[in-house]
Structures are given as C-alpha cells and as structure tokens.
Design goal:
Largest sheet: 5 strands, mixed
CATH superfamily: ABC-type transport auxiliary lipoprotein component
CATH class: Alpha Beta
Number of helices: 3
Strand order of the largest sheet: 5-2-6-7-8
Order of helices and strands: HEEEEHEEEEH
Number of domains: 1
Distance between the termini: 69 Å
CATH architecture: 3-Layer(aba) Sandwich
Number of strands: 8
C-alpha cells in the first residue's frame, strides 16, 4: 500500500500543475452549410494542400503583432494549434467547401495521386497596429498532368473587430485564410 501511495503522490502533483495552462485562441470553423464562401468550379477533382510554410517567428504558438516602429513582437496569448498546421487544415476545409472537390492536406490519404498540389509560403502573419491581420506570401499550383503551373503572390489585410483582443485577432486570421482559399480557387484551380 505504501508503494502505491508513493506513486500516486507525484502523479497527483503533476496533474495539479496542468491546471495552470494558458488560454489558447482560435476562431470557430465554418461548416459547409454555414460558410459564406463563394462557390468556384475547379478543373481538378483531387487537390492536395502541401504543409504551409511560415516565417520563423510565426512557427511558434504565440500570437504576434507589429508595433509602431515595424517590429513584430509576441502579444502574449497563444494560438490553439501550431499555426502552419492550422492554416493547412483550414485551407483544405475551405477549398473543399468552395470547390466541392476532394481536398486533403499532405500526405495524400487516398489511393491514387492528387490531380494538383497547392503549396503556400507565407511571408507575413501578424496583427497590425492599424487593427488588421496581415497574411502575405506566395502560392504555387502544380498539376500532375494537365493544366498550367501557376505562381501568384497575395497580400491580404482583414479587419480585427472589437477591441483587438486575441479572440478578435483569431477571427481576423480565420477570415484572411478563407480569403486566401478563395483567391487560390479563383486564380489557380479553374
């Protein structure tokens, strides 16, 4: 019985330390029924989203904001998920809704190959002092067999509502990523 108590005590102490977790922020996921996303026909039936690459500061869990001098600094609160993974997942979900096609993040989980790969490389990923979320970079559309290769730049600014707290920043980030998915569908997948 003593050995059981000696094992249980450290486990209980470890569990109480878990209660002090920092809050994490993300916006609710839009469903196909509730999504205000435009519908765009795609020439590709099977679309793979390559894992989104981010600048080094944005790979961390912290939410970042630019200051008046242009420095990009951690705001303090944390994202609910690793940002690159979260953006990759959201682009796949949004493109699924927008195009009505089979869309999945890499690695491709289905038999056979995708018809096209979409590779997104982000340069800017932060809240601004002007009350906007900035998402900029470049995306590449690479078909497996038919259709043109495409490379396009994007620079998206979405307004941060309310008092520009972490929840509002997360909602603005979500809107920026949805806007990016729409750009990719219109300019890369038709």
């Amino acid at each position: 019985m003593k050995s059981l108590t000696l094992i249980a005590l450290p486990c209980a102490l470890l569990m109480t330390g878990c209660d002090t977790a920092e809050p994490r922020f993300d916006a609710p996921v839009l469903t196909a029924a509730a999504a205000p996303l435009e519908k765009v026909a795609s020439r590709y039936a099977r679309i793979e989203i390559v894992s989104v690459t981010l600048p080094s500061y944005a790979q961390a869990e912290e939410i970042y904001q630019s200051d008046a001098d242009g420095a990009i600094l951690p705001l303090g609160p944390l994202w609910s998920d690793e940002p690159g993974r979260a953006i990759t997942q959201q682009v796949a979900r949004d493109l699924d809704v927008i195009t009505g096609r089979l869309v999945a993040p890499e690695p491709w989980p289905f038999r056979g190959l995708p018809d096209v790969r979409v590779d997104i490389r982000v340069q800017d990923f932060y809240a601004t002092t002007a009350g906007q979320f900035r998402l900029s970079g470049q995306y590449f559309v690479a078909p497996e067999e038919f259709g043109p290769d495409r490379a396009r730049q994007f620079d998206i600014l979405t307004p941060i509502g309310g008092e520009a707290g972490p929840g509002a920043i997360a909602a603005a980030r979500n809107a920026a990523v949805s806007e990016l998915a729409g750009l990719i569908a219109r300019n890369g997948l038709r």
